[in-house]
Amino acid sequence: MASLLRFATAGSVDDGKSTLIGRLLHDAKALHNDHVDAVAASSARRGQHAFDLALVTDGLRAEREQGITIDVAYRYAATPRRTFVIADTPGHAQYTRNMVTGVSTVDLVLLLVDARQGVTEQTRRHACVAATLGVSRLVLAVNKMDLVAWSEERFDEIAAELAQLTMPLGFVEVTPIPLSALEGDNVVDPSPDLAWYAGPTLLGYLEEVAVDRPAEASVGARLAVQWVIRPRPGEAGGRRYAGTLAAGQLRTGDEVVALPGGRATRVAAVEVGGEPADVAEAGAAVSVALVDDLDVGRGDLLAAAGARPALTSELDATVCWFGDRPLRAGDRLTVLHGSRLTRAIVTALVDRLDVSALERRP
């Protein structure tokens, strides 16, 4: 089975994010015929003679009228080598909260820069947000290279500026790729105008890049129970506990502990996608049966007994605050932890990250 890669686009307005995703899906033969027909009809209604690739992802009526991306548009695609979940996020500064939503669950961010404009304030903001949310890999797509005469010097200048910008942000890898989304150069197929470039095409990179989730690999099994499946009358077997395996692996016979109660038991059976499985990997939707009949409900956590998480009543956190009203010390909050709701009080605000200047301020 092809591995899954979740990635999001980011960058300033009109850098070509939607056009790039449209080009990628179109040239990779990942669009259904009815979708192609719908986009062609929409392009014609707007008086455009050419197929508008940006409309592949800009689905909201307001976006099609204004020609900008407001909401996060999700698309699903597959090649013989990999499957993709793509989040096309807005570029306008006032929609940064939407961009945070799109980036919060991805493995990689595809950051676009207009070759004519170079690195902008919004480029810095989006790189900072991606790093803050724990994204480890960043692809710098230097778009519209055809408008700067395929200049190697211009590409190197932008790549060097972004490398200096991202150095303190802690990315594992930053990969610059020159391309033209509108013309299709170096998106799926290599470009004859980029003879000086020896790296991969964008699709080639996305198909080969490693998907690593260090936080998941460093701990044992973590299954937040979202649903308790009770047997129907006359059905054999006991209760099963379903949810997404957030970290580690689960196998039949593994010793687990049910928190917050703390009782230990063993896994009697594992199902992935409704089918019996020898092992469940992190990220899978699973259900498990336990050897003992414990009082386990929604919001409880099944964790590896040999690597149980620490229990605490206080924590420090980096928060992306979406509220229109500022967050203040003393505020009472409801916290969603896994699938459990609990109450909390803000005791102190340590500092605030200025995502434009990349500086922490009081």
Quick synopsis:
With 362 residues, this protein is an alpha+beta fold. The chain contains 8 helices and 20 strands. The protein is globular.
What best-fitting shape do the alpha-carbon axes yield? globular
> What sequence of helices (H) and strands (E) makes up the elements?
EHHHEEHEHEHEHHEEEEEEEEEEEEEE
Strand order of the largest sheet: 2-3-1-4-5-6
Strand content: 25-35%
Low-confidence sequence ranges: 60-70
Please state the average pLDDT score: 82
- Most strands sheet: 6 strands, mixed
Q: In angstroms, what separates the terminal alpha carbons?
A: 49 Å
Determine Rg (CA atoms, Å): 23 Å
Total count of helical runs of at least 4 residues: 8
Number of beta strands: 20
Description of the structure:
This protein has helices at residues 17-27, 33-45, 61-66, 96-103, 121-132, 152-166, 202-208, 214-217; strands at 3-11, 73-79, 82-88, 108-114, 137-143, 173-178, 222-224, 227-229, 240-247, 249-251, 255-259, 263-272, 275-276, 279-281, 285-290, 301-304, 332-337, 340-345, 352-354, 359-361. The chain has 362 residues and is α+β, with helices and mostly antiparallel strands. The strands form five sheets. The chain has a six-stranded mixed β-sheet with strand order 2-3-1-4-5-6, with helices on both faces. A hairpin with a 4-residue loop joins strand 19 and strand 20 (359-361). The chain is globular and about 70 Å long.
Q: Layout of helices and strands, plus pairs?
A:
Elements: E1 3-11, H1 17-27, H2 33-45, H3 61-66, E2 73-79, E3 82-88, H4 96-103, E4 108-114, H5 121-132, E5 137-143, H6 152-166, E6 173-178, H7 202-208, H8 214-217, E7 222-224, E8 227-229, E9 240-247, E10 249-251, E11 255-259, E12 263-272, E13 275-276, E14 279-281, E15 285-290, E16 301-304, E17 332-337, E18 340-345, E19 352-354, E20 359-361
Parallel strand pairs: 1-3, 1-4, 4-5, 5-6
Antiparallel strand pairs: 2-3, 7-9, 7-16, 8-9, 9-15, 10-14, 11-12, 11-16, 12-13, 12-15, 17-18, 19-20
